[in-house]
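User: Predict DUF7311 domain-containing protein's structure from this.
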Amino acid sequence: MVVRVVLAVLLAAALVGYALPAVEDARAGRADGLARDELTDLRERVARFAERNDPAPPGTAGASLVVVVRVPRETDLGMGVGPRGESLAWERDGRNRVETDLSFDGPLWLREPGRHRLRLSLVARDGEDLLLVRRFKSGNGTTTPSVRTPLDRRLPV
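Assistant:
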């Protein structure tokens, strides 16, 4: 009886040891897929935003767009990387990039997992259109009210 229990425990340990690398590979592949999808979606939103808005001259407030980016665990997402600041990137075991048609004003890396709210603004600087990316922080007068009135929700008054 004891021999059977020992054999069962050894067999279970061997199966778990065999399956764990496959589970880790699946988790890494899923995180890579999520990061790629998130940055591809961001690239498309940036392209639509740039297409529909004109860049603001320096020192003036132009159009801005607030986006939510989800960072998978054990993955870093970067915006404005590359030789001209034109790439969106993610890092897990190596660096992977998604190219854009618009340069960012500088790199911004998101290293904490979870949701991040970012404010994107299109500006003209030195004859070049750039995308400013900042972490969005709501404060007095910086965002819409958190409570929407019936008119905002198109409800009857």
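The chain has one helix and eight strands.
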